[in-house]
Known about the structure:
With about 375 residues, this protein is α/β, with parallel strands linked by helices. The protein has helices at about 1-5, 15-30, 30-55, 65-85, 100-110, 125-130, 155-175, 190-200, 235-240, 270-280, 300-310, 310-320, 320-330, 330-345, 355-360, 360-365, and strands at about 60, 90, 115-120, 180, 200-205, 210-215, 255, 265-270, 285. It is elongated and about 75 Å long.
Amino acid sequence: MEHYSALTTVNTRLPKTSILAAEEWHKTATLDWKEERALNLIRTVLRKGIEEYGDALKVVVSCSFGVDSLLTLHLVRRVSRELGISFDTVWNNTLNEYPQTRLYAKRLTEEWSLNLVEARPDTTIRKIYEENGVDTLLKRKGDRSGGEGNKEPVVEKCCGSLKHKPMRKAIKENGWHIMFNGVRAGESRQRWMSARRDGDYFYSSHTWKTWVCRPALWWTALADSFNYGNNRQEDVWNYVRKHDLPYNAIYDMNAVIDDAYTGKDVIVDRMTAEFLVAKGLNVFMPRTGCMACPIPIRRGYLRYLREVFPKVYRSMLFQLGFARVLIAEMPEDTRAELLEELNGFGVITEKTEEAVLDRLEDVIEWKPCVFDDVGVDKRKQPKKSA
């Protein structure tokens, strides 16, 4: 761990060879080895912080109250007790969180005596969509496809206004020197690329202007959306179960969105969800964050919301204006078939997109699943029963 101690606000990152070596080591390491390395990394970072800032050292754990944040919080808590260091916990409350997350945040704050700081936005998701419109729901953050000068996707504006801006303000107001978070490389290709660029400890001179440590950066989970050649073992949940950590109830609200499924319960707990996924069934496993975020649409999120959180689903269609864009995002042949079908059964009188929007209540009542498959990655689409 000596090479971490050599980093400065000028020499901000480890050499690329060291970062790649850490990635490679984690590909075959056991959970026990990863856990010990994470604890040693946290010790090194905190001791370095004590040397540099003394009693003025201010430490924070960024926590979404999701499972990755939970294990990071638990790891930091173990080391901070050992070293006699206090720390804050900052929650980026977007005001668009699952009710389960809000209740869990309150519970964990009380049970673990967390010094919780809430970073809240000065706007709402509805205002963001009203001011910017809904151009597309299928672009990821950073996507500038579609020609020169193409504007950033609305999801990027959302993240910037609801998460990044409030967090930058909180860091500035509280003067934190070190921030721990639960970011992991396997969450997406974008995060894997940033993991290879920054490593698990670096000074963020541009975005956060503070030291950032990601102890579980190279840990893996079976539900990861991106496999960068790791052993794909279940580090995250095995750690939670090993230490019997209380977790967010949203993780026991997984929905089987597979037409080949013949079981009685559509909403299943985490263990059952993992079992069904291992059998090859499509199960939507939610993560914490904004309920109205369109990013998970590719994984079947619209069907999940329709079945589990119908009020949020309706709000996205009507109040946020998602319905118009979803119709436009349909493949042309699918949209034509839908218009023909709705017209044939008298739900609409004209075979136009506007007619669908004018009679949207009737359309949803007649065909609840109308938007279920829009934008869903074909590699992840539910199997159709024979």
